[in-house]
Prior knowledge:
This protein is an alpha+beta fold. It has one domain (3-114). Helix content is 19%, strand content 22%. It contains 3 helices and 4 strands. The strands form 2 sheets. A two-stranded antiparallel sheet has the order 1-2.
Amino acid sequence: MSETNSKQEIVINKKHGGFGVSEDAILWMRDNGCDEAEAVALPGERYDDGEGPIAGTRSSFGRNLSRDNPILVECVRRLGCRAFGDHAELKVVEIPADVKWEIEEYDGKEWVAEKHRTWD
């Protein structure tokens, strides 16, 4: 396996409060071809269904972004703290490429965990 294919990169929030990206991050991702960022309605924009305009806070932007989206990963690397939502401190975590993963959290502080079988 080549070095570029031996890992996955995932964005998580390292601070209590919850994942979110800034308006600057959404605009940067849109400018760099991220379809998921196109679907995020910013304050003053209308939702896809024409409703709006919306009022919102930075902390709510991007909660539904795929955390392994390469454009999100690059955005966090390039913008640094300018990519953070109001209650977020974003970090790129690298894990082996063959790991099935999920994000777990406590009070908004997140970590990447290997998926396991779970019963309730």
